[in-house]
Give the backbone structure.
Amino acid sequence: MHNPEVLMAEAYDEGVVSEVIRPAAIIPEESARAILVELALLDVQNGGVWQSEPSLWSRYDRPWQGYGSPAGAELIGTIQVAYGTPTKYEITIYRATVTRFGTEAGWTVHTLCDEALGFGKLSLESCPRATLGAPPKPFRF
C-alpha cells in the first residue's frame, strides 16, 4: 500500500503524467469480473506486477519480495477507479497517472489503462463511456 504523502509527492514531480479520463470509462460487468480476477492473479505479493485496492490499481515494474515488501519495485503508474458505479457491477475509471519512472520507461496513460483493460478484452478507446449531462443552469436570485 502506498503512503498518501508519497503519492502526492509523485503527483507534483516533474515527469509525472496525470490525466482525468473524460468522459469516464465504464467497464461493463463481464469485463470488470475478468479484470478483477486477473489483477488478483497478478498481485505484486504473489509474483505479479499489479496491486489492486477498491479505489486504486497500481502497476509496478516487478513483483514484490513478499507481503508489504516492495523491496525496490518501482511504481509505473496508477489507475483511479470506483466500483459499483454507474451500476452495481460496473467499474468506472476516472483518472490515470504515470510516474516519472513509468514515463522514462515509455509508459503513457493509454498504455497503462490498456494493459489493465486488456484483461477484460477492452482498451481505453473501445471502453464504453459515461454519459455527460448538460451543466446546470446558473443560480439566480
Observations:
- The radius of gyration is 16 Å.
- The chain has a mean pLDDT of 88.
- Strands lie at 17-27, 50-52, 56-60, 75-83, 91-98.
